[in-house]
Design brief:
Elements: E1 3-8, H1 12-22, E2 27-34, E3 50-52, E4 65-68, H2 75-83, E5 89-91, H3 99-113, E6 116-118, H4 127-138, E7 142-148, E8 151-152, H5 154-161, E9 176-182, H6 184-191, H7 200-203, E10 204-210, H8 218-226, E11 236-241, H9 244-250, E12 256-267, E13 273-284, H10 287-307, E14 312-314, H11 329-336
Parallel strand pairs: 1-2, 1-4, 2-3, 4-5, 5-6, 6-14, 10-11
Antiparallel strand pairs: 7-12, 8-9, 9-10, 12-13
Helix pairs in contact: 1-10, 2-3
């Protein structure tokens, strides 16, 4: 019997989840829940109902796992503790500093409803978190480095769009995007085992592509971007002014990715030690679609946790890797071990 998946929130990640379900032979989309008018939402899967979010509790006995696809800033802190008392859930809560308190709230809620909830699933937090843990466990003497990009930063892109002088598209959205770009010099120093001490400016640069309004003061606009506190002032920033057509052709996707390194040494002492470098990398053409794909793997794991009677909230550190796969343990050992 296929795992019945619900999608709560049909933004970029929700739409990506629908595509990922279509690629998962052991899953099927049961329903989509939205804060928008359901009649205005056109999904790609035939014969799947779309409901208003206010009706979500009515489906508590019809869904095996609910994917919480809302935003971490406003949606998940409110929706997560409510929904995890009704459904087994998976979410991509990514505000790193607030994960402990979010985990506590989700655990309390899930336990009260006898449900299983896996939180902060994606690639960072998520896969990158696992790589950092593995690296530190294997190489206790060393340093961990995380680099993000080359990829679109939605928060920094939105910060640019607050400025005057940026052209709007046909939908009224300002045409600007910002890419986080890891420093090749810094990464090569890590790869060489130099264990550098890296500043914020030394790890990443910010690259911006902007379509300016006719007559806009480009020098003033560039200065406004580069000197923006918190967002761009701490970094080396490059601003490119391009046409609306070029923007549509080359900057309409949401790529991302990054690297996790563990640089350490093994051996008896400083005079007889060996450099050991671990590197994990992602290069993603669609950040939301990849995040949704990770969530689907953990949805499979959540079902298994629930069937074992393990209620409460869990992180990627708590879930056995074999639970992510549709294959049984014997097959995994034979094919992959």
């Amino acid at each position: 019997m296929k795992i019945k998946i619900g999608i709560a929130g049909y933004g970029n990640i929700g739409a990506g989840a629908e595509k990922a379900i279509a690629q998962s032979a052991d899953m099927e989309l049961a329903a989509v829940f939205t804060k928008r008018d359901p009649s205005s939402l056109k999904i790609n899967t035939p014969n799947v109902p779309v409901y208003n979010f206010d009706e979500i509790a009515n489906s508590a006995d019809k869904i095996d796992v609910m994917l919480l696809c809302g935003g971490s800033a406003k949606d998940l802190p409110e929706q997560g503790p409510y929904l995890s008392s009704l459904f087994n859930t998976v979410d991509s809560f990514d505000t790193h500093a607030k994960i402990p308190e979010y985990l506590e709230a989700m655990d309390k809620s899930a336990v009260s409803g006898g449900k299983s909830a896996v939180i902060s699933v994606g690639w960072d937090p998520g896969l990158f978190s696992m790589m950092r843990l593995i690296g530190e466990a294997i190489l206790p003497v060393g340093n961990t480095y995380t680099f993000w990009g080359r990829g679109v930063s939605q928060g920094h892109s939105e910060a640019i769009r607050r400025l005057d002088g940026i052209k709007k598209d046909a939908n009224g959205k300002k045409i600007a995007v910002q890419y986080t770009v890891p420093s090749e010099i810094a990464m090569n120093a890590v790869r060489n085992g130099e264990n550098p001490e890296l500043s914020v400016r030394g790890k990443h640069l910010r690259e911006c592509y902007v379509a300016a309004e006719d007559g806009a003061d480009l020098q003033e606009l560039e200065s406004g971007i580069k000197n923006m506190p918190d967002y761009f002032a701490p970094y080396d920033t490059i601003v490119h002014f391009i046409s609306e057509n070029e923007f549509a052709a080359n900057h309409s996707k949401m790529p991302h990715g990054g690297f996790v390194f563990r640089s350490g040494t093994t051996g008896a002492d400083d005079n007889n030690s060996n450099k050991q470098i671990m590197e994990f990398a992602l290069k993603l053409e669609s950040n939301p679609e990849f995040t949704a794909s990770v969530m689907l793997a953990y949805a499979r794991a959540t079902v298994r946790l629930s069937r074992e009677g393990r209620s409460g909230a869990f992180t990627v550190f708590d879930v056995p890797l074999s639970y992510l796969s549709p294959k049984d343990s014997a097959t995994l050992i034979k094919e992959l071990l």
